[in-house]
Task: structure prediction
Amino acid sequence: MKKHPHVTNPFLLTAICFFAFFIFGVTDNLKGSTLPALMAEMNINYGTGGNIFFGEYIGFLIATLIAGILADRFGLKLVIVLAGISLAIGVSGYSSAQTAFLLSSSLFIVGLGLGAFELGPNAVIVSLYHEQKGLYLNLMSVMHGLGSMLAPLFAGLLINMGTSWRTVYRWDLLLILIFILASVFVRFPKSEEKNALNFSGITKIAFKHQLPYFYAAMLFYVASEIGLASWLVVYLQDERNLSTVTSNNYLALFFGLLMTGRLLGSFIVKRLGYLRATLIVSILAVLSMALGIFTNSVFLPLTGLFFSIIFPTLTAAASDATHENVNTILGVLFTFSGLGGVVGPWLVAWSSQYFGLQVGFIAILLLTVLTSVFIFILNQRSTYESNS
Result:
């Protein structure tokens, strides 16, 4: 490992980034686990549930773009500390809100924190481990998978015991407060950009060459993953008549396989090639999801195994596609992922509201197909450029 004179302790910093992604997984995926209980308590339909989730990913979308520019100008520490504070405020509000508007507004603040989390730790890892970033980005995403897996297990257990979904959410505050205290006392890498971009300069650098294809692939992938994760428990309970515990266990299995895939994939993605690896698993995800929708439900959580490496490996590949203003480029990439987070749950919600949950999940399948299409285009363009 090369030395980083501006970092207090690279190992400690890496641990904080991994912990951030664990909190990311827990916070983001408690909402799907608690959604049936929330809908029952507040007597809301699928469309209103989708509108509540809409607030989170609008916040996520805004934060990812702003966070990249703030990181280039003021450093990653400010971005990461502000992310923790936003999560604390948003989770407190969401667990106390009594109307759909206040729930959505609270999730908007949560989304601001998660969007900054998406940019901050990824940018730190790229800065610390440039040559091994594919490995470490996937390992960090393992922590996201672990948090995402434990969230539905924890929520399903407590709700089955009669605990309010609001109380379930409040446990998350303990993790967030520990993270804020830890990150305040650690020195982060300083930006190496001499001239940070402003908003008017983004289009000159962020949409060159293959980058728009990365943005499209990321958008459709995140729409697929978040759409599936947000609505899987509701789908299994309402469409397949599974119990609260069983449906939450399916969601936990989805994230467990996501975590396992990232752990295993972290050691092979560079050997296979970033784009080739993501193309293979995206095609397998299409097949698994189709089988889950049209035959046996168990194939739906199995999709997590194939989804596993797509996000971190696309991130690594996109960071290789540019050598300047990396924080801002990653911010734009994660902005499109935030847009996917808006599109996915909302599309499932309103497709389900008008045509039924089965059609809502077919919409997720189509989003996954589009993911494969754009990764295929990237792979073909990369192969052509390397041979020319």
